[in-house]
Amino acid sequence: MARRFDHLGDAEAFVTVVEQGSLTAAAVALGTTPSVISRAVARLENHLGNQLLRRTTRRLGLTEAGRLYLEQARAAFALFDDAERAVQGRSGALAGRVRLSVPTTYGHYRLAEKLARFSREHPQVRIELNISNRNVDLVAEGFDLAIRLGALPDSGLAARRLEDAALCVVASPAYLQQAGTPSRMEQLAEHACIPFVMPSSGRIAPWLFREAGADVDWTPPDRLSVSDDVLGVVSLAAGGAGICQTYDFIAAGYLRQGSLVEVLPHLRGRSRPFSLIYAPHRRLSAASRALIDSLAEAAPADIAASG
Question: How far is it, in rounded angstroms, from Cα 167 to Cα 296?
């Protein structure tokens, strides 16, 4: 009787190539050579009768067939992982790898304690953390989970709300001594405000206020603006360059040290949401599900990722 799934090794090679980003990196991960990996992918494409990867001199890309096969192959391998743990893991110990992408704000200021606790509880789980303000493609780039800021588009992804992060407006004592302290929102236009340029649109991110019970979005002037890394606005403000709006959890340390002080506290009350997202159609590993629960803790139940 012919073996039905004698191509599983080739499928693993294909998945690893996509996750690692190159034949060479996949070969290192699997302990073999790039030529062996290349032949494995070619055999798989021949077996399926479809091209899975677009190969150029500079990069590899997925075809539509490759994207579809990648999703299903990952789900199949996750089932194998669960089956092995069900048989071997009577002790209840979790194992495996979870790839997580997070923005700089959350990566630097929110995750350390939670990931440290998770690693102590599940020492056999390997977490690969990507800290970047770029919105990764979960499927194409091989990420299991990602943390996103703001209202989520109707992308078909599932989400767990992590928190609604409160906002505040801050400046350095040196700046306020030189420029004065604004007491009304209108006075901000006379100050050196430091806005952030949203990478998704190229527009200035509005500052969010609550005045007399009403929500107000105010767009600061862009005489000095920051793009790519939103933490830059805080660094510039702490250095005396002007006023910025940031999250309470980022400002807290600066406020304790006295390098920043809060201004316009009577206009606070707004927040921005952070959510943990994942592909609902992909079967998550037990390790990924455990990390979701650990990060979300008492967060609301799963919600559809819609605006």
Answer: 20
Neighbours of 107 (CB within 10 A): 20
CA dist 278 and 101 (Å) reads 11
pLDDT at res. 304: 43
CA–CA distance, 290 with 292 (Å, rounded to integer) = 5
- Assigned token pair, 290: 């455990």
- Residue showing tokens 């089956």: 83
How would you class 80 by CB atoms within 10 Å of its CB: exposed for 0-12, middle for 13-18, buried for 19 or more? exposed
E-assigned strand segments in 107-265: 125-131, 145-149, 158-171, 196-197, 207-211, 214-218, 226-227, 243-247, 261-263
Q: Render pLDDT for 43-84 as a digit per residue (tens, 0 to 9).
A: 999 988 999 998 776 678 899 999 999 888 887 877 776 666
Which band of pLDDT confidence, cut at 50, 70 and 90, is reported for residue 127?
Answer: very high
Is the overall model pTM greater than 0.85, yes or no? no
Check if the beta carbon of residue 278 is closer than 8 Å to that of residue 284. Answer: yes
CA separation for the pair 3, 9 (Å, rounded): 13
Cα 142–chain centre separation: 13
